Amino acid sequence: MIEEALAGPRPAYIYDLVTVRAQVRALRAALPAGTLIAYAMKANGHPAVLRAALDAADAVEVASAGELAAAPDGAAVIVSGPAKSDELLRGAVERGAVINVESLHELRRLGVAGRARICLRVNRAHPLLPGRHRMSGVPTQFGLAEDDVDEAVAVARRAGHDVAGVHLHAVSNNLDAAQHATFIADCVRWAQARGIGPVVNTGGGFGVDVTGRTHFDLHGLARDLGELRLGGMRLVVEPGRYVAAPAGWYATEVVDVKHSHGTAFAVVKGGTHHFRLPASWGYSHPFEVIPVEAWPWPWPRPEVVNTPVTVAGEQCNPRDVLSRDEPVGRLRAGDVLLFANTGAYGWEVAHHDFLRLDPPRFATLDERWPAPPAAPGGGRRR
Ligand SMILES: Cc1ncc(COP(=O)(O)O)c(C=O)c1O
Fold first, then answer.
1. In angstroms, how far apart are the furthest CA atoms of the chain?
2. Which of 59, 187, 297, 343 has the smallest number of CB atoms closer than 10 Å to its CB?
3. How many domains does one find in the chain?
4. Could you give the residue numbers annotated as active site?
5. What does pTM read for this prediction?
């Protein structure tokens, strides 16, 4: 099926909605019975991906007024974010969302917007998890200090809010399931000790190795969490990457092949304004070469054989690089490169409007190709 999708226009993101649903279901099977799963739409807010995630998840986690507006009608919503706008607070109250409150000041501002069901986001001291983007256990802009929790509970109750529990999201892309299970158990014990609950929201962070070399061990997670005694607490998780990353491919075309100071380059359409993660995280994203036999020009086709290749995009910017020194058998101008595991934080975090370059197309494996976006530079349209 991917071949059929590849026959469409490129560059393109291709999403597999079956995988989106399967990822949520696999996670559910590994987590304690009754765990509420809120899909973090920041990972991928494509409407079809969001709908598919919500087929299997219980709620959606949003972090802006824009995401709140995009949450499908009827979906249960959790609202996060360290600098919530008044618009977001008001909208969240109107929507009946659970709001993860990040500070005493935000709590007081929320009181102006209305009454809500809230969780207190706390940046507590805890053993650090592996992964990226640590958000708790270290100094960050997120959450309340542990010392402020009692005051926050009192302020919230005085304002008439329903304090449902705590929100303790800590990290992104943790590939170590054993440590994630330990973290979840530690969150539950901490909430029990503080007497705040019943909700213990441990956020996202379930990792995906884009190289495909390792896997987050869901069986191990299930085994370790099997020991967990919830004692009346209700676990909530907010996975984004784990749901969307393996469900997406970025496909693009090689425009040119050349050598520069001894390094082989494949220059492609698109680049980091479509798929920014390798540049922002400083890694090389692996790809597959899909040979294309057609060559319309009367001169020899530029190619490299059995050599490492650096894949650069179409921007006038040397940091527009998707992969560095990836070994290839044969790669020619006109071939297609397929980057797997690009369904999360790819398009979502890219600088779409730089140079007014064209956006990619978006397609899903179980739908036909949609009409291309109307105008160059209209990167946010889908
Ligand atoms: C509050 C919150 N919840 C959930 C997520 C999703 O995390 P992940 O995609 O690592 O699962 C994030 C990501 O930054 C977040 O900030």
1. 78
2. 297
3. 2
4. 316
5. 0.93
